Amino acid sequence: MKEFGTAKLLIAALLVIILGVSVFLIMSGAFGQDVTILKPEGPGKHAAEPQNPEASPGALNDPSEQPPAFDPGSFEKYGLRVPAKEDADFNALFDGMSREEAENRNKTLAADVEAGNLFIINKKFPVGKTYKASDLAAIKYFAPDRAAETRFMRSEAAQAFNSMIEAAAADGYKIVMTTAYRSYDFQSILYTNYVKKYGQSEADTFSAKPGTSEHQGGLAADISASSVNYQLLQEFGETDEGRWIAENAHKFGFILRYPEGKTDVTGYIYEPWHVRYVGKTAASEIKRLGCTLEEYCNMNGIKNDAVSVKTKE
Ligand SMILES: [Zn+2]
């Protein structure tokens, strides 16, 4: 009886000690962290949430560990270059963009590339005598005293051009096209006349040798207004009409193709009258970056041969 009593006492004491240690550990929070990590539940609605976000491991709060705003794969998928971190201006275009927005941007830009809307024709990338887009459509607003055969642009560009001129008119500015599409032969006559009048070296700064004119691609138009007597003058950029174009053209997918201070890139003087259709995505970004079409294609990895412009002989 006595030995049995001692054993009972020992068991009771042991239970008290175990209870005491357990209470101490719970109170000190020693189990707190482990519970969420060791909880043996699989994924789904029972997955453990961190009990105390402030005490979570650094990876959840460190911004450098956050997933990127865009998925580099969505650039590669559309044949576009992933913006490099060191290319700060270009990289900044994607600030605040969600993955979905970035993918949409890549998709629309790639569609414009596919449609040939970023196709470059310049001194380095000329086209042949017979190059002519097969979808030329009439432009509604033009200076009546210029060659009728130039009142065309590629279909999508022509529609966008008409909409742009109508929007300008709604704001009170009357703008017209002087020449848009020019055939190789038309350009040949134009260029020859300029060379006769100004000499070749000066003519080359504002007029293109046949085959190197962007006008042959059907995506460019020269515009003017009565305020400069429908001439193609740099003063046009200072008129209300010229300012309206510089401010709003991108909303319709157009850029000022030969901006001020970019002669070394484009090969042409500042031409506030020469607009070029590239689609809304590229136009808005080119305006934001203040760059040229050549620079924009380079930074996006757009190859000048990656196009499918349908042409007819
Ligand atoms: Zn032009």
End-to-end span in angstroms?
118 Å
CATH class category of the largest domain: Alpha Beta
Percent range of helical residues: 40-55%
Q: Number of helix segments?
A: 12
Q: Give the strand tally.
A: 6
Query: Spans with pLDDT under 50 lasting ≥5 residues?
Result: 23-61
Placed side by side, the strands forming the largest sheet appear as 3-4-6-5
CATH topology of the largest domain: Muramoyl-pentapeptide Carboxypeptidase, domain 2
- Looking at the overall shape, the CATH architecture of the largest domain is 2-Layer Sandwich
Say which molecules are bound, naming each kind only once: zinc ion
User: What string gives the helices and strands in order?
Assistant: HHHHHEEHEHHEHEHEHH
Structural class: alpha+beta
Number of domains: 3
Please describe the biggest sheet, giving its number of strands, its sense, and whether it closes into a barrel.
4 strands, antiparallel
Global Rg: 33 Å
Layout of secondary structure:
Elements: H1 2-27, H2 32-38, H3 72-77, H4 88-92, H5 99-114, E1 136-138, E2 152-154, H6 155-170, E3 176-179, H7 184-198, H8 200-206, E4 220-224, H9 240-248, E5 254-256, H10 263-266, E6 274-277, H11 280-289, H12 293-300
Antiparallel strand pairs: 1-2, 3-4, 4-6, 5-6
Helix pairs in contact: 7-8
